[in-house]
Amino acid sequence: MAEKVINGLVPLEMVGANGPSVVPSHDAAVFGSAEMQGGAPVEPRGFYSFKVVYTVGKLGLDDTGGIRVAMRMVSDAGSPQMSDPTAPNYVTAISNGEGQLLLNYQKSGGQRPFGEILTVHQRGGYLREGEQITITFGDTSKGSPGMLAQTFVEGAREFRVMADVQATGNYNLVPGGQLALPVVPGPATCWKAVLPSLRRPGEAFHLGLKAEDKWGNPTPQAEGKLTLRPSLPVEGLPDVLEYDASERAMTLDGLKVSEDGTLYIDVLKDGEHVARAGPLVVRDGAVSGYWGDLHGQTGETVGTNTIESYFDFARNKAFLDVTSHQANDFQIKGNFWDKLNALTAELDEPGRFTIFPGYEWSGNTAVGGDHNVFFRHEGRQIRRCSHALLEDQSQIGTDAHTLTDLFRDMRENDEDVVIYAHVGGRYANIHYDHDPLIETAVEVHSAWGTFEWVLTDGFELGRRVGLVANSDGHKGRPGASYPGDSVFGAYGGLTCFLTGENTRDAIFEAQRRRHHFGTTGCRMFMDVRVEFPEEATLFERNPDAAPDTQRHLVREAIMGDIVQTGAGTVKLRAEVKAHAGIERIEVRNGEKVLKAVRPYSEADLGSRVRVLWSGAEYRGRGRNTNWIGKAQFDQAKITGFETINQWNPDSQFEQRGSNTVIWKNVTTGNYMGFDAWLKDEAGKLSIVTNQGTLERDLAEIGFDDIELDAGGLERKIKMFRLPDAPLGNELEIELDIDLHDAGDNQLWIGVYTEDGYQAWSSPLYVFK
């Protein structure tokens, strides 16, 4: 029987998963077959119903056997339940044969990536060929609204039907058993306009335009006439544009600005202001800034959607300059590795869109932990940590079981490669091993959360690495990866590479020299440099590992550089232009904050009080901190209220009455919070949470942070006061820094924006 091709479904032969090593028969038809009845496309967080009809095959279905419907573990859809027929997600099963059916649901009971399973057990009888079991997902007959859909768009949400016809415990995929439900974008709730952050006069750039639904999915449910109002003359930019939503986004390529300046583009839809792009700093110099998200995966391994849609999203819906695909190595089948390499070669566009072939080396933390591997060229040997989910073990001899093995194999084979350490399910163990010429960066932020410690822990070890931020998204949305309602607790990050052109060679050199900075998902302009009072020596590579590296005498260095100086004091200059107000910039030497600079003074403070909570439980998989909290003003009244980093619209986080805010949400190393504008400012603010309590008189809340250490990993509650008006979005810093004599001075900045984003420069490593 020919299998039906379903658009958006990842081909079975590409998926890194293995089933039972034996089958009852090589003729799969004897297991029976499955079909879907109903199953119309559904919007995110909509309700749906459909039936799975399993028809028994020639072997029959024995007593204590059963069928199983498996779903991908990466989902935030409603979980099947069998106890309340009036509630969402009610599931039933009936048969037209003898015996009874018992249903069992397990959120993570199956094999990766199909970890979510619903099993229908046959008991007290057997079924004959041609008899049927009908499972109704979202049975509405007794009042249930149906099954609750996930928050993210997916071309084909897969329901995989398997049967254990001889009661052996082995479930085999049946013909027709790859069933799928399309999840399509919902109505537009906001517009986005995206520019790069640094170009030189006359250099081409692009403007991205899209409308997103409530859950951050670009949507075709948007139309209208857009008026574009730039702050500088832009060659190639139309005044008015009829928005074409057929591809869920639009890109205007080949735009240019001829003179120095800062460009913003305001977007009006039918006369109403809906978005602002920028800032784009146009400035003559050696480098431009190219934005990338180099870390995500798709349904060929543990994620969702196809690799083709992944690369399309990166370029045409997130408007990235640079990307890569990072599948878990122990799931990468040989044919998928070949396909990945073919696609990166085909889609790489020097000067416009750079793609690196690569993968995630996914060794356990005990032997080094997760690391991202990026090759400059296609056709390289993948060196997996293991073949844990791969039946074809013809290349098992190429495995690198530990991080030490991986570094050794890369060196011995003279691979043109860079590697990042990152924190995902498994976190990178930076204490295990390090190769200074291969491991160029650590990932401090992703959709998993924020992890400054993966950088700062390395300072005591003498590590000289840059920092990056990516999404590690599993939903096929690189560059604009919203967490939804799942184990991911943050919006995905971005990295800006500072280099002369957008090509593989140039981006690779930027990585090796640490000329990049990371953000929690926003695009901003950042320039950090150190000036020396006398000539200093700049090393192109880490001289500890490459003593013959090229050296230059300099009076100035930029973020990421390694410099030796005889001076006792240097001057740090930093310039930041952000999309939103800047709440503060911290200038740091190592882990120490030398100075916190704000675009306002104590005299500017108003009636706005900011409350934040942050942190994680620990460094491993179960790091999520659950917060249940209440903030109450016993006398003051709230006249204005805004949430900060409320990434899950379904989570409880709201103002109640005139003096109370309540929340129930999650942090995973990142932070959340709110601003409250007050009147009748008397009395106290009491914050009561399951992680601790903080109370202060309003008169005590001012310019400086008031903090409660809530244990865990940087888990805190914090309050301070802000001006009433929006904060300035441009800030320049000039600071003299006294250098210590022992080891490196790691000079870097951390930026906090008014709307909750963070950014960090790669450290300059200055030593005497």
* Overall SS class: mainly beta
Radius of gyration: 27 Å
Span from first to last CA? 73 Å
User: How many β-strand runs?
Assistant: 50
Strand percent estimate: 35-45%
Question: What percent of residues adopt helix (DSSP H or I)?
Answer: under 10%
Oligomer: single chain
CATH class of the largest domain: Alpha Beta
Q: Could you walk me through the main structural features you see in this protein, from its secondary elements to its overall organization?
A:
The chain is globular and about 90 Å long. By secondary structure, it is mainly β. It starts with 32 loop residues before the first strand and ends with a strand. 6% of the residues lie in helices and 42% in strands. The longest helix has 14 residues, at 334-347. Helix 1 (307-316) links the parallel strand 20 (288-293) and strand 21 (322-324). The chain has five domains: 12-183, Sandwich (Immunoglobulin-like); 190-282, Immunoglobulin-like, CATH 2.60.40.10; 288-523, Metal-dependent hydrolases (TIM Barrel); 524-599 and 731-768, Immunoglobulin-like (Sandwich); 604-722, Sandwich (Immunoglobulin-like), CATH 2.60.40.
List keywords for this structure.
TIM Barrel; Immunoglobulin-like; 42% strand; disordered N terminus; 15-stranded mixed β-sheet; 5 helices; globular; mainly beta; 5 domains; 768 residues; single chain
